[in-house]
Amino acid sequence: MEGMIAALKTVTLHANQSDWARSTYGKAPAVAGRDPSQSLSNRFKVENALHQFAASRAASADANNFLYLVRANQLAGADPACIRAPTLILYSPTDLVFPQPWIERTAAAIRETGTPVDLAPLHGPNGHLNGVLHIMQAGDRIAAFLAS
Amino acid sequence: MALLVEKKVFELAHYTTRDGAPLKQVRIGRESYGTLDRTRSNAVLVTHYFSATSHAGGRYAPDDELPGYWDAIIGPGKPIDTDKFFVFSSDTLVNLNARDPNVVTTGPASSDPDTGKRYGMNFPVVSIHDFVEVQKALVESLGIKRLRAVVGPSMGALQAYQWAESFPAMVDRILPVIGAAGGDPFLIAWLDLTPNGGTATIPTMMLRWRA
Question: What is the mean pLDDT of chain A?
Fold first, then answer.
């Protein structure tokens, strides 16, 4: 279970961003009065929060499925040059998982063959997770694209 | 009014992975919002992210603490308007949340119908392409010939790109969110780091090597 929690902490933190950590937790200690400068066992609030979130998710997760899911993602291999369907890509400029230059490379490769591609940013403090938590910013774009 | 959704199960009697491994009784969970029209031409497929499930919108029960992850954009009058579209989503193969009672997936945590025992690390390697092949079987089982769109965040974006490449005649448009096509060697290496705190997973792998 500790291994699963550690894995989920890694995935969860990487999907978020510093603006979120700064505005939500800052450098506050996990427990008031127990300063991390005083003892290694005193922790920061951001560390505790991430651990608690990962622990809550770990209960329903399967460690072997995690390994297989990682491999399935490592094997992702769609060739953008083969895509003919009109495409709207929403991206987060602060994304650490799929950085903006990778998105732009995909868009350029799809466009290269004459397929129409549009790009629109999703802003917010959550990095990669802007695509989940702040998706409503692009609500009008999504509705118009589906109606096109 | 809260959108109430019901989880259902799709079963594929036989599926051969892209790498040639035969699987029996492949089961995945699915859910939908809105109504499929008479010509079955208003379907929008939503593909989920790494740690998510088919639960993209609505609630399973009125007192659920949280709705599906994209509830902000899926529902009556919302950007993915369930008054117009039949919106549906399925749990992928090897879904992370295998122990969630609302998740139905086939992977190492499932029983092998031939032995009655868990597959464990004997489960064959599957890819995003396999996720999409199984979804295609689900789409066909619903009598849908063309999708108005495939929409999904992150790993869901990887599936959307794969749909467009594999089945161009079935996909009118794709809407990948926070994801680039084809993966990236940097991401391959980063994903390799994620389970390295994995004291729970390493003994399982060692057991297999010893066997």
Answer: 96
Please state the rounded mean pLDDT for residues B163-170: 98
Whether residue A134 is predicted with pLDDT greater than 60 in this model: the reply is yes
| Domain B8-185, second-level architecture | 3-Layer(aba) Sandwich (3.40)
Q: How far is A65 from chain B (nearest CA, A)?
A: 5
The pair of structure tokens assigned to A60 is 């329903």
> What digits encode the pLDDT tens for the residues A59-93?
999 999 999 999 999 999 999 999 999 999 999 99
What is the spatial distance between Cα A123 and Cα A86, in angstroms, rounded to a whole number? Answer: 23
Cβ within 8 Å, pair A8-B51: yes
Q: Are A83 and B165 in contact (CB under 8 A)?
A: yes
Please report, as a single letter, which amino acid is at residue B94. V
User: pLDDT tens-digit profile of B100-113?
Assistant: 999 999 999 999 99
Residues of A in contact with B51 (CB under 8 A): 8, 11-12, 57, 61
The Cα B29–Cα B9 span in angstroms is: 5
Domain layout of chain A by residue ranges? 2-74, 80-147
Beta strands in chain B (DSSP E): 8-16, 22-33, 43-46, 74-75, 80-81, 86-90, 149-153, 174-177
Q: What is the mean pLDDT of residues B22-39?
A: 97
- Could you tell me the pTM of the whole model? 0.94
Q: Residue B201: list chain A partners with CB under 8 A.
A: 3-4, 7, 63-64, 66-67
Give the whole-number percent of chain A exceeding pLDDT 70. 100
- CA dist A69 and A78 (Å) reads 17
Report residue A50 as tokens.
């991430």
Find residues 97-126 of chain A whose CB sits inside 8 Å of chain B: 97-98, 102-103, 105-106, 109-110, 122
Question: Which element (helix H / strand E) includes A91?
Answer: strand A87-91
The secondary element (H helix, E strand) that includes residue A89 is strand A87-91
- Burial of B32 by CB count in 10 Å (0-12 exposed, 13-18 middle, 19+ buried)? buried
Set of chain A residues whose Cβ sits within 8 Å of the Cβ of B100? 60
